[in-house]
């Protein structure tokens, strides 16, 4: 099971990275989201994969899932959303200003050529 | 305690001139002079103590962890320099009052000057190696300001830049050297270092220490081959030159040689490096002083030459040589400062510094001429003046040295040659400016400057003459105390006198003076000889090197930072691959000691769906909507994975975030192109696939390694203390709002900032809105479908109720502020989608920004509230309450904190989505059929 879980994490990370290497903003944002899924899964698994663990403190609970990675990942999910939102809105703003969704900063290149 | 004030008063003094104004110049000079004068008085009160051989110290810890104390000392060496710095500093303040023109800002000049003076005092009085370095850097910075004082002139700016580059470079080398020195000794305390000579010199790191420290000293003291910055610095106002190049800045280098002399000197390495560098600089500087035409350049090169002389004396392996070096520091400061002042007067009165245009000024300014004659004679080493005494001592010591072994006779010969040239340029300086018939090339008629402008030079020349006539009475005890500090061994018996009988040094002096006159008489041939060389100096080489470095940096930067996000990502990934991959290669096995848990069909199917959906997201990315749908499948599967592995809180959060993210991305996609054009070449795709596969492989390997290792987690603490310490049964929530509440506070702050950032990004944004989808089909006119509208309206109260329920139970069962906030947001956003923005805004008559801000505020105030009860920030209190009808309820202040989280999440999420949604309303393209 661990091998399968690790393969899944790796596969999501690979797909996410491939997308972030693209040249347009939208795939990059989607890639970032995929990457953050992979990272969250990785972080979550550092506490071990617990099946049927108790989530809350009980009198006769057998074993608990490690709560610390869960707390970390919970905030990471929300922050990840904020990051996705910020980058996609930035992409929209860039398109509105420059008329392009190319990630390679067309405008600064133009001004640099204009100066020299 | 008075030691502290000696340094502190001038530092305060750098603020005093700013109270003055350019209109009342004498007042400004006067108030500036007060504090250094008091400091000088304080030094004088300690004079007797120090001359008797006591070392006064003062120390307060500054950064004890680094061994950096604010420790000051006043011994003989510090005393000699402190007197020079403060005494000449006061004279410079007086002189400057008359030198600066009405256009120059006098308060600014004095402020820089006092800052520089403080830094110099700090160097000479530092009792800690690191503190010494701090002041050392401060002199580099403040001299930069002083040299570039006339910042509108290109020369001044260039001079300032060159001197900063050279001395700061040396300063960095010095820092490295001092750190090594401190490591060898085990302390940065000056006294400990000075007493550890044997430890230092037997250490293998002695060689780098000497090289680095000398690099610092030689750059500061303008020793060959770093001499070029000093003539450039002549672009400064003359008072600055007079101060920096006589008593201070350049003397910092030789001071360092003297200060560390007990610890570092005495080895062959020191002898050759210091002695020979000094000798070369002595000859080099003297020669160029002879052939320059600018009178300040003559003095600048002469300074280089005399510093070479002092350096050489510190290099020679004899105690008397060190004493002679200290004596020459004093003498050189006196005559060179006054000669610079004379040069400034000449420049001021005649409007030129070109020695070819100046002559016969004796008739117009006889007193200044007399000062120049005495100063020049002292510089040339004419008997009965102070310069003669130390030069004579120097010549005596060169005869004793065994530097260069069998060629040891070269040293006195070269020293005599240096003195000879020195006599020649001194004669040229005095005779060409003040004699040789009436001036013809001048446009103005020069006359004597105001009395107070002459007075400083007069005072110093008088002092020089007194020392020259009565050396034994005036400076013996001061020199003895200074040499005591600069020598590891006892100070030798010495007797300062003008007449030592007929001996070899006297003959050498006579040869130097006679030869100097002869060389001066034959100077025409020398100039003719010099003219056949192209003027190539170290500055040209320096400029070429700098340009080379800048070009190389630009090329390198252009290759690395070309504005392409793809390029940056590439470098990042390659770095990760190299670092993580490299350490994985040397790991013997990924498999830890844990056995794998068994697989079942559901798990395999789930993983397969996740992986396939991920691959589909990546490879269908050019069809953006499909890619997005695939992404949502991945998100859902991740949520299920959390549920499967006993993390219901995470599953709920992921599910809610997934909904919000999808709505956001769909809305964003509306404003972006629907498809990605085919751009990447086949080669690039292959490259990216390989990189991604490598990255994924490494991450998977790491994850597998982590999963099969037994963990030793601190989580047991949270499990044990959640109920007794935090009053909640849901450990994850208790960690978020109690144990790690400060982290959560930071995170909701980030969330709020992201929301506000997005709000600003969307402000006044004009967007192109497509009137149809990418296949050319117009949008449906039915923008608010009735079923959705009715269902969402019905669901809203229910959803709000659920979110309140999730919030309330969060402390004891899966739920909490994050999840409740997301559920509320989703419910509200559904209203926007179903009914449109206008409809929703009419009914939700409040702004979202204040909600987010209030959320962060509530959380922070809850944390602060615990201060009222005398507990640390964010301490949680809880208790059981009995509420009628509802029953026994456990309440904790952490719930209040969670309420802050709840509001922040709602505020931020709606700020993002509602503001983006608002952009769609003004001109709904689907209603304007005429658009194409």
Automatic annotation (TrEMBL), chain A:
Membrane topology: Multi-pass membrane protein
Membrane-crossing residue ranges in chain numbering: 6-21, 28-51, 71-92
Pfam families found in the cross-reference section: Oxidored_q2
Protein localization: Cell membrane
Domain of life from the UniProt record: Bacteria
Keywords: Cell membrane, Membrane, Transmembrane, Transmembrane helix
InterPro entries assigned: CPA3_antiporter_subunitC, NUOK/Mnh_C1-like
Coiled coil (residue ranges): none
Predominant cellular place of this UniProt entry's protein: membrane
GO cellular component: plasma membrane
PANTHER family the record matches: ANTIPORTER SUBUNIT MNHC2-RELATED (PTHR34583)
Family: Belongs to the CPA3 antiporters (TC 2.A.63) subunit C family.
UniProt-recorded name of the protein: Multisubunit potassium/proton antiporter PhaC subunit
Species annotation: Modicisalibacter xianhensis
From TrEMBL, chain B:
Domain Na+/H+ antiporter MnhB subunit-related protein residue range list: 787-910
Lineage: superkingdom: Bacteria
Gene Ontology MF terms in the entry: antiporter activity
Domain NADH-Ubiquinone oxidoreductase (complex I) chain 5 N-terminal residue range list: 65-110
InterPro entries: CPA3_Na-H_Antiporter_A, MnhB, MrpA_C/MbhD, MrpA_C/MbhE, ND/Mrp_TM, Proton_antipo_N
Residue span, NADH:quinone oxidoreductase/Mrp antiporter transmembrane domain: 126-404
Subcellular location: Cell membrane; Membrane
One GO-annotated biological process of the protein: monoatomic ion transport
UniProt keyword list: Antiport, Cell membrane, Ion transport, Membrane, Transmembrane, Transmembrane helix, Transport
Protein name, as recorded: Multisubunit potassium/proton antiporter, PhaA subunit /multisubunit potassium/proton antiporter, PhaB subunit
Natural source organism: Modicisalibacter xianhensis
